[in-house]
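User: Hi! I have a protein structure encoded as tokens and I'd like to know what sequence might fold into it. I'm fairly new to this, so please keep things simple.
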């Protein structure tokens, strides 16, 4: 299904400049395939994905743009202190997350974009996976709490292939031969699923459901998760 990209007034010019750079670069790095775009809601939603390498955010930005949305990634606050990079991140609508703070400002910023009908992209694991086989780890509850506050669905996504270009915690790009990067979109988890959560245990269970949904989409890309890898990575 083809959707017309929304050219909204609140999209800053720098976002289009970044897209003009990232889209061709991503085409050089990988053959990108995005499956299940018709599952994406028309309204606001939170996009959650597995995180296997420092490169996959760049390719995921390409995916979000191709999904006719403006990328609003939640990223560690230290990146916003870097010269030029910090300015680009701030002016293009990305959201700093202070891992050592209470996160109130980050939630407020994310909720603002969602209230404006936009999407917010989160890696629930909070860091690159440390699972030796690169399966998703246990997630943090931030995405679920934000979904409850903003009353929006969560869309689970599995992505695979970026690690062939830049290994996890590795250095040096492996561009040739050209690799394949694939995104598989899962069925949205409706906002009602999170509406009545109250206790820490309930939020933990809902977060586990989200991570299971992400893992299920990753399995469609690389095969079933082995039984011996079924436990969460520590």
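Assistant: Happy to help. Inverse folding works backwards from shape to sequence: for each of the 234 positions I chose a residue that suits the local structure. Here it is:
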């Amino acid at each position: 299904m083809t959707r017309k990209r929304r050219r909204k007034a609140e999209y800053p010019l720098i976002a289009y400049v970044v897209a003009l750079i990232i889209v061709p670069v991503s085409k050089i790095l990988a053959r990108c395939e995005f499956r299940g775009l018709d599952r994406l809601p028309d309204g606001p939603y939170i996009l959650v994905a597995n995180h296997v390498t420092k490169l996959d955010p760049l390719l995921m930005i390409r995916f979000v743009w191709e999904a006719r949305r403006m990328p609003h990634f939640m990223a560690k606050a230290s990146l916003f202190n870097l010269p030029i990079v910090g300015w680009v991140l701030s002016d293009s609508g990305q959201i700093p997350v202070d891992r050592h703070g209470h996160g109130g400002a980050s939630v407020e910023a994310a909720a603002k974009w969602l209230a404006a009908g936009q999407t917010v992209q989160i890696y629930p694991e909070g860091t690159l996976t440390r699972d030796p086989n690169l399966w998703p780890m246990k997630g943090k509850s931030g995405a679920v709490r934000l979904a409850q506050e903003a009353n929006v669905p969560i869309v689970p996504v599995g992505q695979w292939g970026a690690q062939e270009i830049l290994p996890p915690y590795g250095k040096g790009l492996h561009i040739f031969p050209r690799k394949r990067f694939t995104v598989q979109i899962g069925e949205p988890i409706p906002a009602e699923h999170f509406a009545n959560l109250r206790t820490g245990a309930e939020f933990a269970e809902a977060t586990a459901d989200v991570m299971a949904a992400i893992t299920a989409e990753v399995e469609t890309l690389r095969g079933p998760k082995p039984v011996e890898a079924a436990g969460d990575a520590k």
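A useful reference point when you look it over: The longest strand covers residues 154-160. Feel free to ask if any position seems puzzling.
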